[in-house]
């Protein structure tokens, strides 16, 4: 600090404390007895302030070492375990919390700050959030091998699918939203059942309850084994993207940013 600024600061303190802190002489200035006591306590206050800053930095670092991820059911059941396993091996000191919800609830959690990053399968995300495509999948119509559709030689029409009661996800899920948007121009039958997870729907179809529309991620094993049959629907496009979503700023930092970059890198490696 420049000498004139120091002099002004000392004079301000003297007015505030209503006492002389410095004895001024032509040969220089020395602390008064009162000034000596004040200087002693000032050093202590400054040391404590620096310690406070160190503690605050430690708390910030500790908090940054926790990662809360929210994922829609399809992503959580079929993709997140592998992603988090890779992330954990590279970042063993990060504590990970996973919330499994439908896509609408994931977006709500990102917006209200209860999670650091979300993964959704819904067709759209709010403009107030940033998003990045991390994977792709496709919805397919599946039935039990004994279902009458399994014996069809021609694809279903979109109208036939729309007017058939289906086993579906609950409103707010990405799978349900994608299906509803695809069939919005057709007369719809009431759902046969509404269930809260792809696994529950898959079990229902395996039990012969009725047809359903599910992600290829959820039924690939059962289709390969012949336990389920995929039914083609003429003119129906149910390809979709799976996205990471987060609040601004655009550049996601910390453990959440590391996870999204790992997921993106994994997706690129699989596509090559």
UniProtKB/TrEMBL annotation:
Keyword field contains Nucleotide-binding: no
GO terms of molecular function: DNA-binding transcription factor activity; transcription cis-regulatory region binding
Keyword tags: DNA-binding, Transcription, Transcription regulation
Ranges where the HTH lysR-type domain occurs: 1-32
Keyword Transcription applies: yes
PROSITE patterns recorded: HTH_LYSR (PS50931)
Domain of life, source organism: Bacteria
Family per similarity comment: Belongs to the LysR transcriptional regulatory family.
Name of the molecule in the record: DNA-binding transcriptional regulator, LysR family
Organism of this sequence: Rhodococcus tukisamuensis
């Amino acid at each position: 600090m420049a000498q004139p600024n120091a002099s002004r600061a000392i004079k301000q303190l003297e007015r505030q404390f209503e006492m002389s802190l410095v004895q001024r002489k032509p040969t220089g200035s020395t602390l008064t007895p009162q000034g000596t006591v004040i200087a002693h306590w000032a050093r202590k206050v400054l040391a404590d302030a620096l310690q406070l800053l160190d503690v605050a930095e430690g708390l910030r670092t500790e908090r940054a070492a926790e990662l809360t991820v929210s994922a829609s059911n399809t992503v959580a059941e079929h993709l997140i375990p592998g992603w988090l396993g890779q992330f954990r091996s590279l970042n063993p000191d990060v504590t990970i919390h996973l919330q499994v919800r439908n896509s609408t609830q994931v977006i709500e959690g990102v917006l209200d700050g209860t999670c650091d990053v979300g993964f959704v399968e819904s067709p759209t995300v709010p403009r107030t959030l940033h998003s990045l495509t991390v994977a792709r999948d496709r919805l397919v119509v599946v039935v039990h091998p004994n279902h009458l559709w399994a014996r069809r030689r021609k694809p279903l029409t979109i109208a036939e699918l729309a007017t058939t009661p289906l086993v579906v996800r609950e409103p707010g899920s990405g799978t349900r939203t994608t299906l509803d948007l695809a069939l919005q121009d057709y007369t719809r039958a009431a759902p046969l059942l509404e269930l809260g997870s792809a696994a529950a729907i898959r079990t229902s179809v395996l039990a012969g309850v009725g047809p359903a529309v599910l992600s290829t991620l959820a039924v690939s094993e059962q289709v390969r084994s012949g336990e389920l049959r995929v039914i083609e629907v003429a003119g129906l496009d149910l390809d979709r993207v799976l996205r990471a979503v987060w609040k601004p700023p655009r550049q996601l930092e910390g453990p959440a940013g590391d996870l999204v970059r790992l997921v993106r890198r994994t997706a690129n490696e699989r596509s090559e």
